[in-house]
Design a protein that fits this description.
Layout lengths: L1 H6 L1 H16 L2 H12 L3 H28 L2 H20 L4 H15 L3 H11 L5 H30 L3 H6 L2 H13 L7 E3 L14 E4 L7 H35 L5 H7 L1 H5 L1 H15 L1 H20 L4 H16 L1 H12 L2 H33 L1 H21 L5
Antiparallel strand pairs: 1-2
């Protein structure tokens, strides 16, 4: 039975990732509809995104600590069910201010997925297959981000009310939690690395000790080993989250797309991870984590700039999809790097800290970007973000030998 369960770990968690983001991914494509319903500004729209992002970030640490000390699998199951129930509750709200606590609760419970799941999977596969396996896992989330806008908008148009999208899209997460409970089990303890690799190294971490043995490695040592590469990934995430949050309204207000089509189009950026995530993970197994992260930051700025300067919607969507492929390469690469460096007894916590930094910075910056758009307009802000990321990419490439 254990052998059968192990065989299904990657497919089951790929499906779980898909269903998790069905619950959490409906907000952005539905923002134009929510804005029209409540008559809110760009900044107020951004506050809804921040309510989820900030609480999602804050939820990472306590959930990761619980997962490291108990059962990662049970924490994941709790999160899937709790996130789904929050989505249903959001669908039942009747005012803008009622939605904010709903997204806060969803964010906290959503923090039970990524660090425990990535740690669980990294423990379940050989080190030389981590990048590929985590990349396949991300396909589930990317496919969800591709289909969620289509499903959310279609349900809203079919029902005549965007609230039904949150309610209906919550149920796959509940079904997925039941399947994980039936078909998977906690993996056996892995041999724990006794030393950290050099930053950017493709080697695995040191010599193995006995299975299940704990190793004392400080977070300062971990930061010295991977801090610069993690900061580069956070920069990419900061820009992409700001762009993605306002992309549906950008397509409506700047290019005149219908609200429904704009909500669907934003899925192209996230959905591009179907290609980018496994590609990035596989390349990082062969070429090294550092090489793939530097490639991602080098290409993302120019592609985003090309999208913002495109005269028509067709070219814009082409470049924004290519941009989505490139930025999605970093996620399995960074998760694999953390798994290479951090011992199992601290891995979920290290992943939680990384996601905390990612979500807190984007949660804070999103409404500020919205306020800037209210003052300056969409075009100057989008072009400015693209130029800033392009300049950062040039600087990183020039200093690559020091990273």
């Amino acid at each position: 039975m254990a052998r059968l369960r192990t065989r299904f770990i990657i497919p089951q968690f790929t499906v779980a990732h898909f269903s998790h983001h069905l619950s959490t991914g409906a907000l952005v494509p539905l923002l134009p509809m929510i804005r029209d319903t409540f008559g809110i500004s760009y900044m107020q729209s951004g506050l809804l995104v921040s309510a989820f992002s900030i609480s999602h970030g804050l939820g990472q640490i306590p959930m990761a600590l619980i997962a490291d000390r108990t059962s990662r699998r049970r924490v994941i199951l709790l999160g899937l069910i709790g996130t789904a129930l929050c989505s249903i509750a959001i669908g039942a709200t009747t005012s803008y201010w009622q939605m904010i606590p709903g997204f806060i609760a969803m964010g906290i419970l959503g923090g039970t997925y990524h660090p425990p799941a990535s740690s669980f999977l990294s423990q379940s596969v050989p080190r030389g297959q981590r990048g590929r396996s985590l990349g396949i896992h991300i396909i589930g989330g990317s496919l969800s981000f591709l289909l969620t806008p289509i499903l959310a908008v279609s349900i809203a148009q079919w029902s005549g009310n965007w609230r039904w999208s949150f309610i209906i899209l919550a149920f796959p997460a509940i079904l997925s939690s039941i399947m994980i409970w039936i078909t998977t089990e906690d993996p056996q303890p892995e041999p724990v690395a006794a030393a950290l690799p050099a930053q950017g190294s493709n080697a695995t971490a040191g010599a193995d000790t006995r299975a299940g043995e704990t190793v004392s490695i400080s977070f300062w040592e971990i930061f010295r080993a991977i801090g610069t590469l993690a900061s580069i990934c956070l920069l990419i995430q900061l820009v992409s989250a700001s762009v993605n949050s306002y992309l549906p309204m950008y397509l409506v207000d700047r290019h005149g797309l219908p609200i429904g089509l704009a909500g669907i189009a934003v899925g192209l950026v996230y959905g591009a991870g179907i290609v980018g995530a496994p590609l990035g993970g596989s390349l990082s197994d062969r070429l090294g984590r550092k090489a793939v992260i530097l490639l991602s930051v080098a290409l993302s700025g120019p592609l985003l700039l090309a999208a913002t300067l495109s005269p028509g919607v067709g070219l814009l969507l082409t470049f924004i999809t290519a941009y989505g492929v490139v930025i999605s390469m970093r996620m399995p690469t960074m998760e694999s790097l953390i798994a290479d460096v951090v011992p199992l007894n601290r891995r979920a916590l290290a992943l939680g800290i990384y996601y905390l930094m990612s979500m807190e910075t984007t949660g804070i910056i999103t409404p500020l970007i919205g306020r800037l758009i209210d003052i300056q307009g969409l075009d100057p802000v989008f072009v400015g973000l693209a130029l800033g990321l392009s300049i950062a990419g040039i600087i990183v490439l020039l200093l690559r030998k020091l990273i």
